[in-house]
Amino acid sequence: MRQRGSRRHSPWQQDQPWPDPPWASSRRRHRGPPAGAAIGAGLFHVLGARDLAADGLVYHPLDALAYAILLAGPFALIWRRRHPIPVLLITMAASIGFATMAAPRWMVMIAPLIACWNAVKQGQGRPAFLASAAGYVAYVVVAVLLAGQLGLPPGTRPGLRTLVVLAAVLLLSMFFGGAAKAQSEHLAEMARSRAERARAQEEQERRQASEERLRMARELHDVLGHHLSLISVQAGVGLHLMDNQPEQAREALTAIKTASAEALREVRAVLGVLRPEEEAAPRQPALGLDRLDELTVSAGLPVTTTRSGEPRPLPAEVDRAAYRIVQEALTNVRKHAAPGSSAEVAIDYAPAELRLSIRNDGAVGPDVSQEGSGITGMRERASALGGSLQAGPLPDGGFLVTASLPVRQEPP
Question: What average pLDDT is seen over the chain?
Answer without folding.
Answer: 79
